[in-house]
Design goal:
Layout (H helix, E strand, L loop, with lengths): L2 H15 L3 E4 L10 E8 L6 E8 L2 E8 L10 H9 L14 E5 L4 E5 L8 E3 L5 H7 L9 H5 L6
Parallel strand pairs: 1-2, 4-5
Antiparallel strand pairs: 2-3, 3-4, 5-6, 6-7
Amino acid sequence: MTPEAAAREKIDALLQAAGWCVQDEGDANLGAARGVALREFPLKKGHGFADYLLYVDRKAVGVIEAKKEGETLTGVKVQATRYSDGIPDFVPAWVRPLPFLYQSTGVETRFTSRLDPEPRSRRVFQFHRPETLVDWVPSPPAPLSRARERGSRIGR
């Protein structure tokens, strides 16, 4: 087994422990669980493949860049950002660009929230649960009632 394959086995186990259903992109079933992690997801031309694309409630929310054990992760954030920016337009997403970036060797994992005022990579000890990530995504503004949009005539 290659060092990269060993790292992915560890990452798969960590994701499953955090409540993610890990699948190959070719066998994707986004309804299999609330949180689905798709391996080797093809991105827009020039962006390559995301090692893992994270979906919650059938919408993309983040990416994981996998590296072999022993590789430094602090410089990998740029690659994860490129993956986040390269999500194809047909992929439903909670927010664009995707807000949550992970870099992991299966032993060390770093996390960046692009929703932070000053996003920076932080070491975490486990992947976040799907429901945690979706709770952090800002809600879209509530639609105004039709009466308010047209200007209510009541009381005039």
